[in-house]
TrEMBL record:
This is PD40 domain-containing protein. It comes from Streptomyces crystallinus. It comes from the Bacteria. Residues 317-343 are annotated as: Disordered. InterPro entries: 6-blade_b-propeller_TolB-like, TAT_signal.
């Protein structure tokens, strides 16, 4: 269902219950080389209000933009952090379960004030609240379009893992310019192998946006398959592109997709981080050998970043080349939900 949600709220002018789900971390580069293993060596000191922004640093200071992420350090767990050449690790007051940002727009999926339910919060570049919407479900993925105009989220409605078993997810998309809300993709027209497809077991997750603010990619599961689908916000249609693609992340030039591929075709065996060339269909497994259960982000056209769990409560952000060469290395310790800060 597509609607302007502000026009349909019953009592509150800013809140509406919808289904949804979620997403990871941060870093920066000086003179072309990454700030490796930015780490919380000292106890976290929360920055003054306004000191943390979602705007990139000056190009004269750093060749690549910095990153934003969520801390998993014990003294700042869940707080937004930024990492840049000028400030290796700055901690904000904002606390999120999942986070992403682009072009000065932030998306924070966080506990509501009653601490039993979640809400979606759209932020401006200085972390001011633009919109708040209650969520039904547990946040799992979050993504902002390159323009900053669109935000998308995924929630687990039931279950809490993609590695087999029964679960139900729901995706939502909000146009921050018009407040037009796509509350679910389950009522969109779907084609599989160029034929209309109807099923009751459809699940969607992991949206990634194209540059045109119209098209996007996501994962659709049905009948034991996990398809990469391409969506069109104008026509409300979803077309399958390829089987076996989860949590897609579109490259800055729109030609490749980083994704997690189930080992041996079985999510219970974990996932191999890989890159799909959309034109040729060629898939390149990346150098990371650990199972990656994350929606990767592109640091630039040659490098992807992702989080790896370290125990129950901690994670680190790693990077690896997108062409399958090289070796993975830690970018930011004790962090997850990375987002490249772009103008």
């Amino acid at each position: 269902m597509t609607t302007t949600w502000l026009d349909r709220l019953s009592r509150s002018p800013r809140r509406r219950v919808i289904g949804a789900s979620v997403g990871f971390t941060a870093l920066a580069v000086l003179a072309g080389s990454a700030i490796v293993a930015a780490r919380p060596d000292a106890p976290a000191k929360v920055a003054e209000q306004g000191a943390v922004t979602l705007l990139p640093g000056s190009p004269s200071v750093q060749e690549r933009p910095g990153l934003a992420a969520l801390s998993t350090a014990s003294d700042s767990h869940g707080r937004l952090i930024t990492v840049s050449a000028a400030a290796p690790r700055t901690v904000a007051r904002l606390n999120c379960a999942r986070f992403h940002a682009a072009a000065g727009t932030g998306l924070c999926l966080r506990l509501d004030s009653n601490l039993t339910t979640y809400q979606l919060t759209v932020l401006d570049a200085h972390l001011g609240v633009r919109t708040e919407i209650p969520l039904v479900g547990v946040p799992n993925r979050a993504r902002v379009s390159p323009s900053g105009h669109l935000v998308a989220w995924t929630v687990f409605v039931t279950g809490d893992s993609y590695n087999g078993g029964r679960f139900s997810t729901r995706v939502g998309i909000l146009d921050t310019r018009t407040d037009t809300l796509v509350a679910t993709l389950e009522d969109w027209a779907v084609t599989v192998a160029d034929r209309p497809y109807h099923a009751k077991d459809l699940n969607f997750w992991g949206v990634t946006f194209a540059l045109d603010d119209r098209h996007f990619y996501a994962t659709m599961s049905t009948a034991g398959h996990r398809y990469l689908v391409r969506g069109d916000l104008a026509t409300r249609r979803l077309n399958t592109v390829r089987d076996g693609v989860e949590c897609p992340s579109l490259s800055p030039d729109g030609t490749r997709i980083a994704f997690k591929a189930a080992r041996d075709g079985d999510p219970r065996h974990g996932w191999r981080l890989s890159v799909l060339d959309l034109a040729s269909g060629h898939v390149t497994p990346l150098a990371e050998q650990h199972s990656v259960d994350d929606q990767a982000v592109w640091l630039d056209s040659r490098t992807v970043a992702y989080a790896l769990r370290r125990g129950r409560d901690h994670a680190d952000i790693w990077q690896t080349p997108a062409d399958g060469t090289g070796s993975p290395r830690v970018l930011v310790e004790d962090a997850q939900s990375p987002a490249t800060l772009t103008p």
